Amino acid sequence: MPDAYIVAAKRTAGGRRKGALSGWHPADLAAQVVDHLVDLTGADPETIDDVIVGCVGQAGEQSFNIGRNVVLASSLPETVPGTSVDRQCGSSQQALHFAAQAVMSGTQDIVIAAGVESMTRVPMGLPYTLPKKNGLGTYISPNMQARYPGIEFSQFDGAETIARKYGFSRERLDAFARQSHERAAQATDRGQFEDEILPVEIRPFEGESEGMHVRDEGIRADTTLEGLAGLDPIVEGGLLTAGNASQMCDGASAVMVVNEAGLKALGVEPLARIHHMSVHGGDPVVMLETPIEATRRALAKAGMTLDQIDLFEVNEAFAPIPLAFIEALGADPSKVNVRGGAIALGHPLGATGTKLMATLVHALRKRDARFGLQTMCEGGGLANVTVVERL
């Protein structure tokens, strides 16, 4: 079977909710990254076979096929199609999988997988909290209610359940959160994000532009355990707080994926080869533990062991998720989220999949390492796993 190669991977720096990127329409923001990949690779815009965009809040400014709207907001010709993917937090990681499958099949040669989320302009949860009439309109169907009676499918409850299952204390969760900020701040100060971040104009929700946005806005280098300990829990009596959970974030990211024919057409050297990709479903109630079993299955299917993986990107939706991943699998903590994660850098939902891939690919190259694995928990008890090989 033909291989799928990553030839370019970029992201915007994360913008805090109502922060540096809040004035951008999400289609325009994603179009900036898409256009940059085309310029970076020297691709003839006519040769882009498809643009696949992950987005979770597909309502308001992110509705009406945001993937196609990104194309129409870009410099790509109208002949380039675009489509949208919703696999919850793994949306753009799934977009990457679809892009890779397309080029591996030979039906397409050059595909851009992207993701975008403006959590300022399309608030989290908006699509399923729209007004309902006469009790109609909930995403939980009667058959789902019968199968899971009384269940509301809360990610907060799932994360609390995982924290208690593994015996994590509030102190341990807060210590992990502080580490995320420390690693992100150090990576920023050392210029380790420069290869992956595309500078874009600062556009606050209110007021005028103030230069270029080049630094992840959520990083707090001065985070202390004392400060984290003073935060109230999200759920009364719980362990989770705003400090040890991912930050709401505005952002966009994109990866260009090609096959051998695409490489020849572009005349560029690949950054990485996609070695394995899979997706797995687990308990939709606990919901967020699936990356563990998904990784076990992925490694077995790829004929690999955990020790062969040089770097891991495990999305920090909540601190218990990567901590449980490390504990259950015996992963080396020094290889997990080495540049920090969503607790510090932000989690722009639909953009996070290709955002993490941009970080992973460039981190592998900086370290001259070979294999990287990316996974994340997703609403509904899902988890994608992608293994890449640096070239």
TrEMBL record:
Q: Name one GO molecular function term.
A: acetyl-CoA C-acetyltransferase activity
Task: List the InterPro entries.
Answer: Thiolase, Thiolase-like, Thiolase_C, Thiolase_CS, Thiolase_N
Q: Which residues form the Thiolase C-terminal domain?
A: 269-390
The segment(s) forming the Thiolase N-terminal domain are 5-260
Q: Give the enzyme's EC designation.
A: 2.3.1.16, 2.3.1.9
The entry's active site is 89, 347, 377
Q: In which domain of life is the source organism classified?
A: Bacteria
Keywords of this entry: Acyltransferase, Transferase
Tell me the PANTHER family matching this sequence.
ACETYL-COA C-ACYLTRANSFERASE, BLR7806 PROTEIN
The record's comment on protein family reads:
Belongs to the thiolase-like superfamily. Thiolase family.
NCBIfam families given for it?
AcCoA-C-Actrans, PRK06504.1
What is the protein name given in its UniProt record? 3-ketoacyl-CoA thiolase
Q: Which organism is it from?
A: Roseovarius indicus
Gene name linked to the record: fadA_3
